[in-house]
């Protein structure tokens, strides 16, 4: 009788494991493609102005200063509205907020089609930053509510790769539109480019609103048993404390928030350097023509995305994230430093170093956020994630300005890239030693989670 009872228990456990795996697989296929595509389109909308610049500044008679200020105003809106937008997610739910802000930035991108003056350009770039500000931290919180442990890290690395594929989208569609649609219906090519690259965001925002569930318990495509199993698994593998956590300090007085902000700032500085200057690097390395440069950038980004997923798959375990995040940052620092010495002599080495840099920054950022959710309490998590994102994204404004200033002063990008490589190396120090301070200050119950995270 006892043997029969044990057999039934084992059989039930096996069935539950299969149901849980099936539930997570179903969630991945229904959630991940939508969020991946939206993140890719978010980067398209913030970055395609660099491609449009080839025609826009001439048609509108913008100076480089006007263009630079407008491009940078995106980050002002992004920094100011990250926290307020993310707070809305707790009140109205992830589905409504993520889909709503995606639709808002999509419509703002459509409006870029009709820019005819500097003030309009400034206003729309600022609004674009306002609407995109809450999306990335919102997805971080959303993944935390849907996936646990290594599964969440792997899925988040796939989601984050969308930013790398945005360059592929801009390069392949932007060049075609500028070349073949210029003058169609009396519209300049750059206007058609903004319009063509914005419409998919508006459509996908509607799809997201219809298909994204807020939490597992509201997912109608899961059975009642699957919903319960997912929620139980999330509780068993929770890496953050609940809202009654011991850390009641105000956000601005919490050293963990500032240490994590410093680490993320260093990661984003390297990301901005690679994204904003990789076409220039490839041109100086000997890649001739826009199409060849576009294909090279696309290839480097694709290899970088694959490397990102590989690094995160190996280092996604809770006890490895901090170390592998630091290792990814080391790869990025090496890439930035080595580029200075090879991009005028070897096109092949330049290409593969760029791919290494994209892999390092992608994996570093993905692992950073999966590590960070384990160091913030329930209250700090909701506000801390967007706050860290907002503070660190100042790097997106500072990095291009500093590299451009160094180029104007010295006549070369070398010093600027070495400077950013040093910033990235500082990030490694913060990850290895600053984050360790967070671990030591945590309660004994939580320390096992973060000791080697």
Blueprint of the fold:
Layout: H1 2-59, H2 64-92, H3 94-111, H4 118-132, H5 135-144, H6 149-160, H7 162-180, H8 189-211, H9 224-236, H10 255-285, H11 290-315, H12 321-342, H13 347-372, H14 378-392, H15 394-410, H16 414-441, H17 444-450
InterPro entries: MFS (IPR011701), MFS_dom (IPR020846), MFS_trans_sf (IPR036259)
Membrane topology: Multi-pass membrane protein
Organism: Caballeronia catudaia
What does this structure look like?
The structure is a single chain. The protein has 453 residues and is mostly helical. The chain has 2 domains: 30-215 and 233-238, Growth Hormone, Chain: A; 242-453, Up-down Bundle (Growth Hormone, Chain: A). Helix content is 81%, strand content 0%. The protein contains 17 helices and no strands. The two termini are 45 Å apart. 49% of the residues are buried.
Described by its quaternary structure, the protein is single chain
Spatial extent as radius of gyration: 23 Å
Please report the distance between the alpha carbons of the first and last residues.
Answer: 45 Å
Give me the number of helical elements: 17
CATH topology of the largest domain: Growth Hormone, Chain: A
**Global mean pLDDT:** 80
Task: Sketch the topology as an H/E string, one letter per element.
Answer: HHHHHHHHHHHHHHHHH
- Sketch the major β-sheet: none
GO molecular function: transmembrane transporter activity
Domain Major facilitator superfamily (MFS) profile: 31-439
InterPro entries: MFS, MFS_dom, MFS_trans_sf
Subcellular location: Membrane
């Amino acid at each position: 009788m006892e043997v029969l009872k044990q057999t039934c228990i084992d059989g039930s456990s096996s069935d539950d494991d299969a149901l849980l795996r099936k539930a997570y697989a179903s969630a991945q296929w229904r959630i991940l493609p939508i969020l991946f595509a939206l993140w890719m389109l978010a980067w398209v909308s913030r970055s395609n102005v660099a491609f449009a610049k080839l025609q826009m500044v001439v048609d509108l008679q913008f100076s480089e200063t006007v263009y630079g200020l407008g491009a940078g105003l995106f980050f002002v809106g992004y920094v100011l509205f990250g926290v307020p937008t993310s707070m809305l997610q707790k009140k109205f739910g992830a589905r409504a907020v993520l889909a709503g802000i995606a639709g808002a930035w999509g419509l703002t991108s459509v409006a870029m089609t009709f820019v005819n003056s500097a003030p309009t350009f400034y206003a729309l770039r600022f609004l674009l930053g306002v609407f995109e500000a809450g999306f990335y931290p919102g997805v971080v919180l959303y993944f935390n509510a849907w996936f646990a442990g290594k599964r969440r890290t792997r899925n988040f690395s796939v989601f984050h790769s969308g930013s790398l594929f945005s360059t592929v989208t801009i390069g392949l569609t932007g060049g075609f539109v500028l070349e073949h649609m210029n003058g169609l219906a009396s519209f300049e090519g750059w206007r058609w480019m903004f319009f063509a690259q914005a419409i998919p965001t508006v459509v996908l925002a509607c799809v997201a609103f219809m298909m994204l569930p807020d939490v597992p318990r509201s997912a109608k495509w899961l059975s009642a048993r699957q919903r319960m199993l997912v929620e139980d698994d999330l509780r068993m593998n929770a890496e953050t404390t609940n809202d009654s956590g011991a850390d009641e300090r105000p956000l601005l007085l919490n050293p963990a928030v500032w240490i994590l902000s410093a680490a993320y700032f260093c990661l984003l500085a390297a990301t901005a350097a690679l994204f904003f200057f990789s076409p220039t690097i490839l041109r100086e390395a000997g890649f001739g023509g826009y199409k060849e440069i576009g294909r090279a950038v696309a290839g480097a980004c694709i290899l970088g995305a694959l490397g990102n997923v590989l690094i995160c798959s190996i280092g996604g375990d809770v006890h490895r994230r901090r170390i592998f995040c630091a290792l990814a940052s080391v790869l990025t620092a090496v890439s930035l430093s080595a580029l200075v010495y090879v991009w005028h002599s070897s096109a092949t080495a330049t290409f593969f170093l760029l791919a290494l840099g994209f892999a390092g920054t992608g994996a570093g950022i993905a692992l950073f956020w999966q590590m960070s959710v384990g160091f913030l309490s329930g209250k700090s998590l909701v506000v801390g994630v967007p706050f860290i994102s907002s503070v660190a994204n100042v790097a997106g404004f500072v990095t291009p300005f500093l590299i451009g200033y160094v180029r104007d002063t010295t006549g070369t990008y070398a010093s600027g890239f070495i400077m950013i490589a040093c910033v990235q190396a500082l990030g490694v120090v913060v990850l290895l030693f600053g984050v360790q301070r967070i671990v030591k200050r945590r309660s004994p119950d939580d320390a096992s989670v973060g000791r080697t995270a």
